[in-house]
Automatic annotation (TrEMBL):
Molecular function GO labels: amino-acid racemase activity
InterPro entries named in the record: Asp/Glu/hydantoin_racemase, Hydantoin_racemase-like, Iso_Racemase_Enz_sf
Similarity comment: family membership: Belongs to the HyuE racemase family.
Pfam annotation, one family: Asp_Glu_race
Recorded superkingdom: Eukaryota
Gene: TDEL0C06810
Gene3D superfamilies in UniProt: 3.40.50.12500
Protein name according to UniProt: Uncharacterized protein
């Protein structure tokens, strides 16, 4: 696949365009790095699912010691980037970014909101798991992640609950319930063109949902968050080549 891209220098200086072209050409260097991925599961003491603020902090308290332990295989300094696989303003993101020499740390909520803010042509909303997340996610977006453009144009439409627990989202018997909630709430009531699948438990369902709602862009935060992490880590690695 070949992408046709346009780079615009909005001033009249050809020399500036030439400099931009040289920088863009250097993007080829980004493809020089292979990568491998290590996966960490929360240790004993971490909740089996994260369904609100209390379990978010429990999971942070359980995971952070391992990530800070130089003897651990998950020690944060061993890695060029870290993705926190929970769709929330998870406390681990802030806890890690506050550490000395932390690599890029990407959260699923902020990377997803940044992505949909690039598209001022249509409104966006979230479908999440249990109803407790609605108020939490809306408050986080309003306080920390909503751009001025999205706010001014009313493009952010808020969060909808699927009324299912995290571990119920991938059950085949619940797929119809998810479809109906998206149809009634995200699409018909909120008029969303972009629907963020606001829980890691939705991961992979975007392909089935796209067949039912071909006019909607479904954002999988895991895929988007990992691409964001990979780009950020590669960019920093290139600085040291």
């Amino acid at each position: 696949m070949v992408l046709d891209l346009l780079v615009v220098n909005p001033n009249s200086s050809r020399s500036m365009s030439d400099e931009i072209a040289r920088s863009v050409a250097a993007v080829d260097a980004f493809r020089a790095f292979a990568f491998k991925t290590t996966y960490m599961t929360g240790p004993e003491g971490a909740p089996p699912q994260i369904d609100g603020e209390e379990t978010s902090h429990q999971s942070c308290d359980a995971c952070l010691p391992l990530l800070k332990d130089p003897e651990s295989e998950y020690f944060y300094k061993r890695y060029d980037g870290i993705l926190i696989g929970c769709f929330s303003d998870h406390p681990l993101v802030e806890a890690l970014t506050c550490l000395t020499d932390a690599p890029p740390v990407v959260g699923l909520l902020n990377s997803s909101l940044s992505f949909v803010s690039l598209f001022p042509s249509g409104p966006s909303s979230v479908i999440t798991s249990n109803k407790e997340w609605v108020e939490i996610l809306d408050a986080s977006v309003e306080k920390k992640f909503l751009t001025g453009e999205a706010r001014a144009r009313g493009l952010w439409k808020g969060t909808v609950s699927s009324n299912l627990q995290v571990l119920e989202l991938h059950s085949e018997e619940n797929f119809g319930k998810i479809v109906e909630r998206i149809r009634r709430e995200n699409v018909e009531r909120l008029g969303s063109k972009y629907v963020i699948l606001g829980c890691a438990g939705f991961s992979g369902l975007q392909y089935k949902l796209k067949k039912i709602f071909p006019e909607v862009i479904f954002v999988d935060p895991i895929i988007l968050g990992f691409q964001t992490l990979l780009s950020s880590a590669t960019f920093l690695k290139c600085q040291n080549v």
